[in-house]
Amino acid sequence: MSDHVRDHVRPDVRGDVREHVRVAVIGSGFGGLGAAVRLRREGITDFVVLERSDAVGGTWRDNSYPGCACDVPSHLYSFSFAPNPDWPRTFSGQPHIRAYLEHVTDTFGLRPHLRLNHEVLSARWDAGALRWEIATSRGALTADVVVSATGPLSDPRIPDVPGLDGFREAGGKVFHSARWDHDYDLTGKRVAMIGTGASAIQIVPAIQPKTSRLTLFQRTPPWVMPRVDRAVTGAERWLHRQLPFTGKARRGLLWGIRELQVGAFTKRPEALGLVEALARANMHRAIKDPALRARLTPAYRIGCKRILLSNDYYPALARPNVDVVAAGLAEVRGRTAVGADGSEAEVDAIVFGTGFHVTDMPIADRVVGADGVTLAEAWKDGMEALRGATAAGFPNWMTIIGPNTGLGNSSMILMIESQLNYLADYMRRLDLLGEGRALTPRPAAVAAWNRRVQARMERTVWKSGGCDSWYLDANGRNTTLWPGTTSEFRRETRSVDLGEYEIVRAPGGSAAPGGTASSGEPAATGHGAAPGGTASSGRAASSGGAASREGAAA
């Protein structure tokens, strides 16, 4: 595909002059940088990466709390097109992963495309011009296509706890794990840790030796397995540098093992009994107090919540300066943290490890589609996207790590790369359609895809395991995870099926009579098109015209 040669500054319908790009990518974590690399590989250089912070890295930039590390092996938690033979550990820490993303940025020449400190305030579809109008904290621009790669772990969630403001006024310190205050010294402090997720089990052993008293408010105990982590030897790194196929083989082995595990999570949860026994044994080795052991034993099937990995979490909880409250934080009275069970603890600092806005991503409130509704409004009954990528009513908009693309046991980089394949084919299809065309998924196709996903979800451990997890939305639907293998998902996203899409045309470009578009492409029938093979959106375009929609050839 040849480069898109176009003017970067265009007047809009009001005569304003704004930068225009072929593609605007939102976010510079793994998803955003991966999209940028793939666009360049497709010959598309007319794009920008809009990043609200002052550096790339996404969640691996924001999460810098003590002990922060990945629970996926390093050689699998990296791009297949950018292998790193020099990972220092089998499970790498946050500094090494962030450095890897900086390396990817430089290696693939992405710096000129970056717009740092450009937080996206709104993105609105202009039906008359067939483009997205984007407002950022540093100005406005327009784009033919928007790729939203903000990720589900980008906006921290702090519960509305009564008395929290009073605690701050009384001199108490409050912060979220993803916004760690490195200027605040926890040495000798009385600290309340709220939550027992993946971040908390890393933070607790890292800060426990410093604190005078650490109180863990645990709403639900996690299942914790040993973390088989070690330093990668110099000989191993030399081998991977000199013989790159050895690194690929290592990655392939790690991938294959996890592919074989998927069936237990998605079809045979009862097969996880042995894993549960191993997790119990892991706890029993470190926790000798029967009462504490009882508080730390989950009452749900292992795998229903994410299985956590740690060698030092349980030993830290057994230390004399640690208290485990088997209840969530209910309120704060002055400097006293009060649990839902009435337990009280005098604290100097409260650290929230309470996760993120996953099923209610804030970016959805800022994206306005063709019908004038926000993505959040369109998803009010639950997130839905065709093949985890495109949403009905939002032309030329795609999300990376969208609904039902998450994983419970493997590397999200595998899913991201599959979505990049879909993005690449999407851009090819747009090029073939030519100027004045956009693509929007048919509502029926989106609904059919999500019915299929949710039907498969019913037999998974995430729905039948007896827990309430962050995988579930307010309606109890799992709109977060993919109920299959990564290889299945790759097959499903290898290419764009135009039969699942409608072609949106600019005003004045309506389809010709007899079911054939004026450009010569056939209009699909039997997919909800109006008589004659065309479907009119009936929307008023911002320029005063009306965009029309025609069926895409299957």
TrEMBL record:
Residues 506-554 are annotated as: Disordered. Keywords: FAD, Flavoprotein, Monooxygenase, NADP, Oxidoreductase. The keyword Cell membrane does not apply. Its cofactor is FAD. It comes from the Bacteria. It holds the Pfam family FMO-like. GO terms for molecular function: flavin adenine dinucleotide binding; N,N-dimethylaniline monooxygenase activity; NADP binding. InterPro entries: FAD-bind_Monooxygenase_sf, FAD/NAD-bd_sf, Flavin_mOase, Flavin_mOase-like. Catalyzes a Baeyer-Villiger oxidation reaction, i.e. the insertion of an oxygen atom into a carbon-carbon bond adjacent to a carbonyl, which converts ketones to esters or lactones using NADPH and/or NADH as an electron donor. Thus, can convert bicyclo[3.2.0]hept-2-en-6-one into the oxidative lactone products 2-oxabicyclo[3.3.0]oct-6-en-3-one and 3-oxabicyclo[3.3.0]oct-6-en-2-one. Is also able to catalyze the sulfoxidation of methyl phenyl sulfide (thioanisole). Belongs to the FAD-binding monooxygenase family. This is Baeyer-Villiger monooxygenase. It comes from Streptomyces fradiae ATCC 10745 = DSM 40063.
